[in-house]
Amino acid sequence: AVRFGLAAVMFWGLVLAGGAVRELRALAGRDVSLGLALGGCGYAIQAGCYFAALQRIDASLLSLLLYTFPAIVAVAAVVLGRERLESRRLVALGLASGGLALVVAGAGAGALDPLGASLGLGAALVYSTYILVSEGIAGRVSPRLLSALVCTGAAVALTVATALLGDLRPGDVTAAGWGWLACLAVVSTVGAISMFFAGLDRVGPTSASILSTVEPVVTVLLAFLVFGETLAAVQLAGGVLVIAAVLALALRVRPQLQGATT
User: Fold this and answer.
1) 107, 244 Cβ separation under 8 angstroms
2) How many other CB atoms sit within 10 Å of the CB of residue 45?
3) How far is 83 from 73, CA to CA, in rounded Å?
4) Which among 58, 6, 24 is positioned nearest to 216, based on CA atoms?
5) What's the CA gap between 147 and 38, in Å, rounded?
6) Taken in order 68, 69, 72, 74, is the CA torsion positive or negative?
7) Fewer beta carbons within 10 Å, N or C terminal of the chain?
8) Tens of pLDDT along 199-248?
9) Is 188 left (phi over 0), alpha (psi -120 to 50) or beta?
């Protein structure tokens, strides 16, 4: 709740400083409602599932579970008639699915928390829906204004939910805690969301989700360096398959990017 509250304040500051108030006034009510709903129903639920799962399973395993969403987006795009399922895409989806199976199996029956894994996969499903729905509005609304609407919706939803659960106790947060929350707001929210929407408008949902899968590699590396987390050999093999799937799909991105610059 604090993360998205701080991010919403910063985004609205950027909107005012950038003179986007006129765009907000001209924005259709449907787009305003959709932007707020993307945050309140999409990002808030995804973030809630993610942080709940993080309390039960390691960050590295959770990241690999969450990043099944590029495969989900690719399949959904085909079902919705937005893209065609080509042989390269089928191979990549097979690699990603096999990698996920190895990651989950490698945790072992006793070590893998079923609820944590379910929350991680639930976050992936919600985020996939979020990306597919965002594609249309990202072409009509500037990234900065859309980000402000999304973060506002998420902040309101999470604040209400946290208050109802009795967890809204800002006085219990330490100075160091506020510092980390500020980092989450600035780096992982304001920076990440605004750049994602800007990229989504340029390369589309599948390519945007593929390009963002660099995160699991960074997460696993940082979890090893900072928290001392490790993955079993079979899980590492699964991670390699997931990354191979990303690379196979990423071969489709370059022609799109070249076409966009000509």
Assistant:
1) no
2) 21
3) 10
4) 58
5) 10
6) negative
7) C
8) 877 777 777 777 776 776 677 777 778 888 776 787 778 778 877 877 77
9) alpha
Specify the residue for token string 């799909």. 249
State what percent of residues in the chain have pLDDT above 90: 26
33: phi then psi, degrees, rounded to nearest 5 = -65, -40
Over the Cα atoms of the chain, what is R_g? 19
Location of structure tokens 């589309």: 204
**3-state DSSP call for residue 6?**
helix
The string of DSSP letters for 188-245 reads: IIIIHHHHHHHHHHHH-HHHHHHHTTHHHHHHHHHIIIII-----HHHHHHHHHHHHH
Please say whether the beta carbons of 145 and 24 come within 8 A: yes
Query: What residue has token string 């950038």?
Result: 18
Per the confidence metrics, is the pTM higher than 0.70? Answer: yes
| 159-215 pLDDT per residue, tens | 999 999 898 888 899 999 999 999 999 998 998 888 888 887 777 777 777 777 677
Q: Is 234 exposed, middle or buried (0-12, 13-18, 19+ CB in 10 A)?
A: middle
| Amino acid, res. 121 | L
